[in-house]
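User: Please predict the structure of the protein below. I'd like the answer in structure-token form so I can feed it into my own downstream comparison script.

Assistant: Understood. Taking the following sequence of 203 residues as input:
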Amino acid sequence: MLKWVMACVFAGQIVSADPVDQVTLAAQSAFDGLPQVRLVDQISGQCGADETVNQTVAYCTTRNQIFLTGPAVDDPQTLYMLAHAFGHAVQVRHGVADFALGQIRRRRAEEAMLRGLVTRQVECIAGFIMSRAGLPHTDLTDLFTDEPFTGSHWGRDPLHIGPKVSIGLAARAEWFAIGQQGDLAACAPGEFTSDLLMDALNP
């Protein structure tokens, strides 16, 4: 099974009975160049993913596509996970990821800290997208008992060698909540400002 997730806008409002479509359209209308979402039977086998890659949502930067497993679309955690993948896509498509990679290459001793800042910003963007979709505020600590997305779930082909980052569930929940307040300018952890994000944001 392979399907594109679609939604539409009428009179400036998201029109969809499917919250997955709402998140997709909210992200794609806020930022240019973001990936399409493809519903797939399994993540393994897509863009070099194996069983070590997140089996619900994965973002392939090489193809600029987000893969979402069909059975996951009814899971209450899925909307957050999809928004998180779009958060990575915003960074990749609008220069933040390139800036971060340059800093990491120059400052290898600080790689864990730098990746942690990048991840905090991703969570904030995800919260912003959820807010823009008009969905209720969500506390990640209500959805998860363990920190999500610590394994590979985004990157170039092959996905199985994608970044692995842990910042703790509390930090993820904190920055996701900041984003849900609807102010993208607040998505500026540490030295990673929101300037590139604000430049990319559509009115």
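That's the full token string. The longest strand covers residues 36-40.
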